[in-house]
Design a protein that fits this description.
This protein is an all-alpha fold and 247 residues long. The protein contains nine helices and no strands. It has helices spanning 2-19, 26-41, 45-67, 75-115, 118-124, 129-167, 172-180, 185-211, 217-245. It is elongated.
Length: 247
C-alpha cells in the first residue's frame, strides 16, 4: 500500500511537471480555458446554488430545533449559521460535492481520450499532451472557483433568510443581527483560499487519473471513481491542514 501510494505521488508529480510548462500555442490555450470555464465552472453553478440554499435552510432549522433554548439569544442562531457557512460549508463541503461532478467529468473525458489513442496521437505529433489537455482545465477550475464560492455563501445566507420568511421559525431581524455579529472579513478570504487549493486538488488529481488510464472503457469508469474518492479524501486532509494554518 505504501509503495503504491509513493508511486502514485511520484507519477502525479511527473505529470504536473509536464502540465506546468509554458503552453505551445497561447491563443489556443486561452480559448480552451474559456471553454472549460463554461463547462466546469458555470455549469456547476446551478448545482451549487441548489445545495447551498438547502443547507442554509437546514442549518437554521437544526440550530433552532436543537439549540433554541429560552436563555439563548436569538441572534446566536444567525451567528452559528454564518460561522459554519464561511468556515466549512462553502469551501470544503461544496468542493467535496464538486469532486463528484467536476472530478468525474475530467477523469472520464481524459480517460476516453487515452483509450481512443487521441493522447498518443498528440505525443507522436510532438505536442505536450499533458499541458495541452490538463492545464486549461486546472486554470479554468481554479480561476473560477472563487466565483462559485461567493455564489455558495450568498445562496446559503439566502436559504437561511428563506427559513425566517417562509417558516417563520425566528425573526429575520434577529438572524441579520447574528450574521453581522463580530464579522471578520478574513473568514471570507480564508474560505476562498481553501476553495482554490481544493479546486487544484480536484482538477489535478482527476486529470492524472484519466491521463494514466490503461485498458478500455471499464478502466475509464474505474479512473472516474478513483478521481472522486481520492479527491474527496485529499480535500478533507487538506482542510485539516489549512484550518490550522489560516486560523
Amino acid at each position: 500500500m505504501i509503495r503504491g501510494t509513493l508511486e502514485a505521488v511520484g507519477g502525479w508529480l511527473l505529470v504536473m511537471r509536464q502540465v506546468l510548462r509554458r503552453p505551445q500555442n497561447g491563443r489556443l490555450f486561452w480559448r480552451q480555458v474559456g471553454t472549460d470555464i463554461w463547462r466546469l465552472g458555470v455549469g456547476s453553478i446551478p448545482l451549487v446554488l441548489t445545495i447551498s440554499i438547502a443547507i442554509g435552510v437546514l442549518l437554521v432549522l437544526q440550530i433552532v430545533i436543537n439549540f433554541g433554548y429560552p436563555w439563548l439569544p436569538r441572534f446566536a442562531i444567525g451567528y452559528a449559521a454564518r460561522e459554519v457557512i464561511l468556515l466549512e460549508f462553502s469551501s470544503a463541503i461544496v468542493c467535496v460535492i464538486l469532486a463528484g461532478k467536476v472530478g468525474s467529468n475530467i477523469a472520464s473525458e481524459i480517460g476516453t481520450m487515452r483509450v481512443t489513442q487521441q493522447i498518443d496521437a498528440l505525443d507522436v505529433m510532438g505536442v505536450n499532451s499533458a499541458g495541452y489537455i490538463i492545464l486549461p482545465k486546472i486554470v479554468a477550475f481554479v480561476g473560477f472557483i472563487p466565483v462559485i464560492n461567493i455564489f455558495s455563501i450568498a445562496a446559503a445566507v439566502l436559504g437561511a433568510y428563506a427559513t425566517c420568511w417562509i417558516a417563520h421559525i425566528m425573526p429575520a431581524d434577529s438572524l441579520q443581527v447574528g450574521l453581522q455579529h463580530s464579522f471578520m472579513e478574513w473568514y471570507v478570504w480564508s474560505s476562498i483560499i481553501k476553495s482554490v487549493v481544493f479546486a487544484f486538488i480536484i482538477s489535478s488529481v482527476s486529470a492524472y487519473q484519466g491521463y494514466m488510464v490503461k485498458g478500455g472503457s471499464v478502466e475509464v469508469g474505474r479512473a472516474s471513481t478513483n478521481a472522486v474518492v481520492y479527491s474527496s479524501i485529499l480535500i478533507l486532509f487538506a482542510d485539516i491542514l489549512l484550518t490550522s494554518l489560516l486560523k
